[in-house]
Amino acid sequence: MTSKKKPEELRSFAWFGPDTLRGFSHRSRMLQLGFQREDFIGKPVIAIINTWSEINPCHAHLRERAEAVKRGVWQAGGFPVEVPAITITETYMKPSPMLYRNLLAMDAEEAIRSLPVDAAVLMGGCDKTTPALLMGAISANVPAIYLPAGPMLRGNWDGKILGSGTDVWKYWADRCAGVVSDEEWKGVEIGIARSAGFCMTMGTASTMTALSEALGMTLPGASSIPAADSNHVRLAMDTGRRAVEMAWEELKPTDVLTPASLRNAITVDMAIGGSTNAIIHLVALAHRLGFDLPLTRFDEISAHVPVLANIRPSGEYLMEDFFYAGGLRALMAEIRDLLDLDCLTVNGKTIGENIEGAVVLNHNVIRERSNPLMETGGTVILFGSLAPDGAVIKSVAADRRLWQHTGPAVVFHGFDDMEARVSRDDLVVDENSVLVLQNAGPLGAPGMPEWGLLPIPKKILARGIRDMVRISDSRMSGTAYGTCVLHVAPESYLGGPLALVQDGDLITLDIPSRKLDLLVSEEELAKRRAEWKRPEEKDKRGYLALYKEHVSQANEGCDFDFLKPVTPSAAKI
Ligand code: FES
């Protein structure tokens, strides 16, 4: 360890060191907690920002893991303090946990900034918690290291392996089509989530934790270790130890997170066939750093990166298999020529040093370069008259027969309208129709819920059809699959072209040409625009009012305008 600081130069020393009335107060209150002066004066104070909650099953083990982090902090000569932060639980928060990503980011930032903290261990994993904690840490810019909660074990029912989300959609469609019984459905329910940890498909949680490692914000290999594995306990302890060293070295998020590390994260996102949600979160992270990250950059990078992770929903396996196959270090070693290996990481070494010696142990799970799941373009960005500011589709999870498709729109004006009508016998729809959902974006829903996997109408399911083109300004679970165009910007609530679509309008999706067009004349659209009225504002108070006043559109990362850095950097990614 290189000690760059003297104890009196520690940030926490400003609280605990001075012989002043305030210093007296700070020391006496720590003594009130039963600690000795030598425990905390002149020692790195490590905040363990813990998003544990009984209502968050993905983080069920984080209380125990915080104890392991503390063990590491004490061993390394630091002083650990556990600081609870709000939890964002994907399953339970309505209408959308995405509403609260920025709130957790503010919570983390203000906890780190306002308390006597020399470094922070960030503990999360369930979807939005990873970007939120990283965004908060960037803005606080005090040394910080991320500890991913780890994926849960493989699901199991009746001898079949089940993946979070992915197999729910699959068996639900089968149940709606009448080929799965109530008893079988109950078996899926009890078997699909059988340990602590986050969703073990390549959903948003596994994607964002992998990207936190690719960004250099975790210890090497951290993102792939299952939550229930004893390696995860040792990881927690090592993370605590390393946080103490980082405090002495003053290794800050802005030393680690650079345009090159963001490019590495986008490259890895494409190679793992990551969740579409990662695009919004990476843009938000880039903007917190003051970097410019247009959506087109994702497409440019995606054009050179093969999809190698054979993980559901795009592939066959689950995160537990990915760990046994060598994990993210092995995958990154496989694409080392596409990465900037000189990027610094939180362990003080470069990405190149961290992946040294990593090998793929199972090429069915992590494909070879010569045999990718998809040559390039796992996630693509679409532009066109229906999405002037962009839209996103996970092409690797879409039915190839629909990659170039023109069909008539069937429009739902909101989620309730869709629920009420989508499976009615009198809905005018066939397998060539394009299902369109309006008012499901950052402002319209609000919170851009994961409604983008519009259900296939029952009468279409009954014909054995399992995919259709679906378009919305909402998001989709990273565990889901299908030809779903998402994040359409500007959103319909703001009067974007999506708001003007009517039943029967022809829409063209062309993934190879990156196009999404509404085939309606400009004259007709101008007429509809003049008649369009914004839906009545319902959220007039509290956090929702604050959110609606300040949130940006999907292509801008959905962050609050007042959380951007005061001085943006000129750096481009
Ligand atoms: Fe927490 Fe899926 S519900 S990651």
Terminal CA distance reads 32 Å
Poorly predicted ranges: none
Oligomer: single chain
Provide the helix percentage: 25-40%
Report the radius of gyration as a whole number of Å: 24 Å
Ligands, deduplicated: FE2/S2 (inorganic) cluster
Q: Would you count the extended β strands for me?
A: 14
| Mean of pLDDT | 96
Task: Estimate what percentage of residues fall within beta strands.
Answer: 5-15%
Instruction: Describe the largest sheet.
Output: 6 strands, mixed
Specify the structural class.
Answer: alpha/beta
Number of helices: 21
> What would the principal axes of the Cα set say about the shape?
globular
Major sheet strand order: 12-11-10-9-13-14
Task: Give a description of the structure.
The chain is of the alpha/beta class and 573 residues long. Helices cover 34% and strands 12% of the residues. The chain has 21 helices and 14 strands. It has helices at residues 13-16, 21-32, 37-40, 62-75, 101-114, 129-140, 166-176, 182-191, 204-214, 230-249, 253-256, 259-271, 277-288, 296-302, 319-324, 327-334, 351-355, 415-421, 458-461, 522-531, 542-550, and strands at residues 45-50, 79-84, 119-124, 144-148, 155-157, 160-162, 380-384, 387-393, 404-412, 434-437, 469-472, 484-485, 506-510, 515-518. The strands form four sheets. Strands 12-11-10-9-13-14 form a six-stranded mixed sheet. It has a four-stranded parallel sheet with strand order 2-1-3-4, with helices on both faces. It has a two-stranded antiparallel ribbon with strand order 5-6. Strand 3, helix 6 and strand 4 (144-148) form a beta-alpha-beta unit. The mean pLDDT is 96. FE2/S2 (inorganic) cluster binds at residues 58, 90-91, 126-127, 164, 198-199, 203, 205. Residues 58, 90-91, 126-127, 164, 198-199, 203, 205 line the site of FE2/S2 (inorganic) cluster (FES).
